[in-house]
Amino acid sequence: LFQAEACLYAWNFLTDILRIPADRLYVTYFSGDESMKLEEDRECRDIWIKLGVPENRVLGFCSNHNFWEMAETGPCGPCTEIHYDLIGNRNAQELVNSDNPTVVEIWNLVFMQFSRDISGRISSLPTLYIDCGMGFERLVSIVQGLHSAYDTDLFLPLMKIIHKCSKVGEYGGQLKDINSSKTDTAYRIIADHLRAACIMISDGVQPGSRNRGLVSS
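The line above is the sequence of alanine--tRNA ligase; the predicted structure tokens follow.
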């Protein structure tokens, strides 16, 4: 029940609420780690298969990818991730967790079961809990059928304002490739900073020359 409910909620939200095609999704789970004396998380693997995810789309990965730790010590645990294939109609197994820009992580469930002490020893936590992470902008881009969050209606109004104020060429949407435009990169940096500044100011952090205000400036 500890893992099953979280997996069910995540899967239903993505496939039923957002209507993201299930045949574009891949799921990863913790395949174990001998150095930490932790076995494969077969319970998690079986949960996904019972939810209807094909076995060849439920992929095991080592602790580098599927074990989360806040720091060198403290709470930690295996995680399961959901990845989305931007292209579709292909077998993208080998592209998962390979830094390929066409297969992106959109959801992460960390099963906080353990704690690591200063000596590196891992012990079980008395209470189990789940840390859920998802990329809002990335999900918006997927729902809107786009390959970049900067092309969504979250960012395009900002791009238009930047264009109007800067009087440079319009935002072209070119990303990291041989044809990438430095102007487009500048657009994205400015848009990100503007949003961050707005959020900080709305939380009461006014621009200044000291402490938090310096960050806002």
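Note on the example: Residues 4-143 form a domain with the BirA Bifunctional Protein; domain 2 fold (CATH 3.30.930.10). DSSP finds seven helices and six strands in the chain.
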